[in-house]
């Protein structure tokens, strides 16, 4: 989904993402892209198969250069996590270890609680694209992180897994409301403006004999008002609706536009 705004500074920081024995440079690059989407910039690479730096990773990162340029290289997983206080190992397989298992959402909340404002660092371990983490790597973690997916098909590529976990991390600290509307520079209509529109429309409907059953008029008026109010129009949209009502009411009941004399050609 395109839409990067290069005029805005990216969010940075977050838990470390540790890739153990990553194979393809393209996978490292797409992982970096997924990380920056979620405000994660601490990338650590343990024994990348095709060496580092990697031109394929650069191309696949699609501009997430800040992540790749800051990536750190390690020979051992132990060294890559040495400065971290809490580490999660990602796996969908049973490892026959006594470990707490958490979802990405729970892990994100835990990392926020542990790390926000304390300086305590957290990280997430990811294994090889084909086989995942070795048991010795999982044993170094405080908890196992598993993404709840179709139990018959839980396979994810590396960037997908990082994006899912990174998204939960980002949204756990994001204030974006779950539902909102963009109106550009147009303010919403005030109740006074809406009521004026209602009354304008109702006058014209009375003129057109729309409310033929007097006893049903109140309920019909309420239905029309509720319908228009549900659209939550802007002030400009209300003015446009006034113009529409005026234009439509410009025709007399005999079908001639208002202001045209009988006998005049249309």
Report on this model:
This protein has 266 residues and is α/β, with parallel strands linked by helices. The protein folds into two domains: 16-172, 3-Layer(aba) Sandwich (Alpha/beta knot), CATH 3.40.1280.10; 191-248, no CATH class. Helix content is 39%, strand content 11%. The chain contains ten helices and seven strands. Strands 3-2-1-6-4-7-5 form a seven-stranded parallel sheet. Helix 1 (25-37) packs parallel to helix 7 (158-172). The longest helix has 17 residues, at 191-207. The two termini are 52 Å apart. 28% of the residues are buried.
For the structure shown, list the relevant keywords.
single chain, 266 residues, alpha/beta, Alpha/beta knot, 2 domains, 7-stranded parallel β-sheet, 7 strands, 39% helix, elongated
Looking at this structure, what is the CATH superfamily of the largest domain? SPOUT methyltransferase, trefoil knot domain
Query: From the alpha-carbon coordinates, what is the Rg to the nearest angstrom?
Result: 30 Å
Q: What is the CATH architecture descriptor of the largest domain?
A: 3-Layer(aba) Sandwich
- Low-confidence parts lasting 5 or more residues at pLDDT below 50? 259-263
Name of the level-1 CATH class of the largest domain: Alpha Beta
Structural class by sheet pairing and helices: alpha/beta
> Residue share in helices?
25-40%
Strand fraction equals 5-15%
3D shape: elongated
Distance between the termini: 52 Å
Please summarize the sheet with the most strands. 7 strands, parallel
* Number of E strands: 7
Mean pLDDT metric? 89
**CATH topology (level 3) name of the largest domain:** Alpha/beta knot
Overall tally of structural domains: 2
Query: Numbering strands along the chain, what is their spatial order in the largest sheet?
Result: 3-2-1-6-4-7-5
Query: How many helices does DSSP assign?
Result: 10
Please trace the helix and strand order, writing H or E for each element. EHEHHEHEEHEHEHHHH
